[in-house]
Amino acid sequence: MSSSGSHGAEGSSPMDHYHHYDQQLQAYQSGPAAATPSRYESQKRRDWNTFGQYLKNQRPPVTLSQCNCNHVLDFLRYLDQFGKTKVHLQGCMFYGQPEPPAPCTCPLRQAWGSLDALIGRLRAAYEENGGSPETNPFASASIRVYLREVRECQAKARGIPYKKKRKSTTKGNAEESSSSTIHFS
Ligand SMILES: [Zn+2]
Known about the structure:
Keywords: Developmental protein, DNA-binding, Nucleus, Transcription, Transcription regulation. With about 180 residues, the protein is an all-alpha fold.
């Protein structure tokens, strides 16, 4: 039995407008505090809106207060379909080779560094948007464990050890993260 009251409100979400944030921020760059019109800030805003849209698109939709680390983990796995980093499967003849001499059919993933930077931005955004540090799902231990597993798996598969990056808790570290932007299609 299908209930007869579906309001197709899909097209009218305010999140639809998130693509325009960048343009607004760029137009804003003549402001006084805009030596660098922080790419980090605009990226963080985009990430945050994308995550919000992702939660809304769940069936049933997930509100921010319901959001827990499992939603975040699902989000990270969901992002892999937009990844651009070749991660060889164990059976691939190029497994563990940093520069394979030929193409292979292994899947593309989000690079660990991109996910790590993304989580950092979303963790900050969560608290800037009223979330409590105690319930911050982006700061949970299971996210750290997941990211570590991804890093180790990718390091083995690609034969490229990840350099130990200094943990930075400051929010203005734009240059570092700009090279590891997540690209949504
Ligand atoms: Zn491969």
